[in-house]
Amino acid sequence: MIAGLEDELAKRFDIHFQHPELLDEAFTQASYVNEHPHQNLKFYERIEFLGDAVLQLTVSEYIYKRYPEMPQGKLTRLRAAMVQKASFAKFALECHFDQYIRLGRGEEKEGARHRSSLLCDIFESFIGALYLDQGKDAVVAFITKVIFPKLDAGWFDHAIDYKTALQEWLQRDGDVIIDYDLKREDGPENDRNFTMTVAADQKIIGEGTGKSKKNAEQAAALQALQSLRGQQETLVTHGKDELD
Amino acid sequence: MIAGLEDELAKRFDIHFQHPELLDEAFTQASYVNEHPHQNLKFYERIEFLGDAVLQLTVSEYIYKRYPEMPQGKLTRLRAAMVQKASFAKFALECHFDQYIRLGRGEEKEGARHRSSLLCDIFESFIGALYLDQGKDAVVAFITKVIFPKLDAGWFDHAIDYKTALQEWLQRDGDVIIDYDLKREDGPENDRNFTMTVAADQKIIGEGTGKSKKNAEQAAALQALQSLRGQQETLVTHGKDELD
């Protein structure tokens, strides 16, 4: 048993493992197993293999249902951003998983505990363990706390572009009419600047400038998103700041 | 509704959709939607996005549990072989899915119905529809008929090597002691041939020759697999021949 891990999961996430040996496996690196040859330990790699696929499906299903009009190409880009190693490493840190990894002495010395690739692996293997212990619904409940709030917090906007992100944000609670209008065009002929506004139900909510109308629209959408999110800050339970 | 599709699924797989509109979506290409603009149709791409992830997980979980000693690297190679486009296209043909795809006239003329990439997509989108309609267990029941028997039939041996495949085959029903022994070594010094035998519980079941002992072992394992599978042919319900 790994000291403190079960308490942490119970306290922060109300997760209680029926088979804590799955947790041991999920948080143990091969280097630790090699240093304790008589303890008959397992290391996390097989369970990580499973966890990776569990995350692919649960994230896919969530965005498939949440964005019923989003075409496949955008869904694919958004999923790729959400399931990338860098994201998982941040989630692992946020969950304090780094504190509970069992490493061999050599790996510990070399700072493996803080390596993004290991943190990502451990996040996946934890998901694999949770899935084996309690099934898909428990995984969905967990990532509803840890991953999905980051969508509203804007972590993955770049994957779908700001105009789409703004549209998804505004239309969460029903139809909203979104208009982009040219407010101003200035500068010399070969170096024009365009300024666009974006309005939701005829109320201007953002403005942006760029070298093309398209770029100006993206800038306007980003400004609108930032201001809308500022207003709703209290709703975003898991902020980005903790991890950056 | 797509004529005949529901009957085929009911007859061959005992599958009955509660929401047949999901089936319509899963079997309809964008080209058909474009030619019928007033029917408010959906095409398969979004649902295929989901089906792809469902297959990743269900196949991963199956091989994870079936091969409890297989290390991650081999699991990953085996999964890659099982979920590749060429495999899915064959499964789609085996299920007669090609007959039910709704295509635009241009695509039909160009032979899209027989294109491996489209067949693969349709197999994935069918899985997505089945998952949405009836959940993961229904998908597992379906691929237990369509995909998993191919493991025993040897379709994916190359992904894990013949020695591993033989070991998995022999140890399905409990422990078997497998020995590889050098039977003969001949040829000139710079062009040696090695002949190895493989025995299961001290009974020789295969023999192979190669330029190294390792290659000879692989050849012996392959011969053993072929002969064992020949004996069990009647057990393999979905043979390879139909599709090749």
UniProtKB/TrEMBL annotation, chains A, B:
Family: Belongs to the ribonuclease III family.
Keyword Transferase included in the entry's annotation: no
Domain DRBM: 161-230
Protein name: Ribonuclease 3
HAMAP family attached to this UniProt entry: RNase_III
Domain (RNase III): residue spans on this chain: 6-135
SUPFAM superfamilies attached to this UniProt entry: dsRNA-binding domain-like, RNase III domain-like
GO cellular component, one term: cytoplasm
Stated role: Digests double-stranded RNA. Involved in the processing of primary rRNA transcript to yield the immediate precursors to the large and small rRNAs (23S and 16S). Processes some mRNAs, and tRNAs when they are encoded in the rRNA operon. Processes pre-crRNA and tracrRNA of type II CRISPR loci if present in the organism.
Leader sequence segment: none
Subcellular location: Cytoplasm
GO terms classed as biological process: mRNA processing; regulation of gene expression; rRNA processing; tRNA processing
UniProt binding sites for Mg(2+): 48, 121, 124
Subunit organization: Homodimer.
EC number: 3.1.26.3
Keyword field: Cytoplasm, Endonuclease, Hydrolase, Magnesium, Metal-binding, mRNA processing, Nuclease, RNA-binding, rRNA processing, rRNA-binding, tRNA processing
InterPro entries according to UniProt: dsRBD_dom, RNase_III, RNase_III_dom, RNase_III_sf
Cofactor: Mg(2+)
Gene Ontology molecular function terms on file: double-stranded RNA binding; identical protein binding; metal ion binding; ribonuclease III activity; rRNA binding
Protein origin, superkingdom: Bacteria
Gene: rnc
Active site: 52, 124
Leading EC class: hydrolase
Reaction catalyzed: Endonucleolytic cleavage to 5'-phosphomonoester
